[in-house]
Amino acid sequence: MLPASIQITGELLSAAEVQDICESLQEDGVRLLSVRGCQLSDRDFGLVCRGVAASGSLAQLNLNLGVVSGSGRTRHLADALKANRSLQTLFLHGSPLLDAGLVTLNSALSTHPALVCLDLGDCMLGDEALGLICGMLPPDGAKSGLRELTLSANPGISSKGWARLAIAVAHSSQLRVLNLDYNPLGDHVVGMLAVSVASSRTLEVLDLEGTGLTNQSAQVFLDMVENYPTSLRVLVLAENDISPELQQQICDLLSEGEEEDEREAPPPRSGPASSSAPRPIRDKYQPPTWLPHSNSSPQMVLLTSGLGESLLAETEM
Fold this sequence. Notes:
alpha/beta, two-stranded antiparallel ribbon, 9 helices, elongated
């Protein structure tokens, strides 16, 4: 029997439901577990974490929207991650971790043998936490690290912290998707990030939606994609004070590069797909009130798979 998916959103979980979840985890019957926004007692959360620790089949765990709500739960999760060996994707978006919470989780996250996708959006993180996250993006020749990282809506991170991340991204040998949407970055910080993107040989998707940018940043990216080789294929600049014409120019150039890659790529192998893992979509942060809005043209909204693959959807905002 193939492992199943358990996906529950915004419900009060009963003791019986928690018991069923735990038994399925311990029997290696779950591939994806999502309890985003659910309410459960501290005791039951601890039981779920024991199930995660024992599971050999769990690939994706979604605890978004406040499920990890205190230091005790953070410790339970850290212990579970230290014992687990199968988890590839962890969603903690909207959890009030603070820097102290990431300090608790850091050892388990940075040494996990399979983790490739991490969502720490809207977790109230600061520079100390970001320094630890940079350690999960090891430089070329070092151990494997994250392939997809989400840090949306963490306004407590300073320009110094973002500069440190830019250096880590430039030298990371694994990172393919970076979501920084709805952070108050501004043109100065994004100028540093543009240099790291130009240096990276792996980064394919960068989400800068709602980060307080102007045409100045767009011109920098336009120059980069127009004149220099880059691995970047998707750049999300929606909800910034950037002209639609500049956004379209950048999009067209990135599309041309993607088409060239497809022509040069070898034909796909026949047979089953390389991965049967389920592909959850990350929570997209909603715009806070302090950010300026761009023109009312259709917005490019990044939806990520959680396993290093990205889906791009065009929606009317």
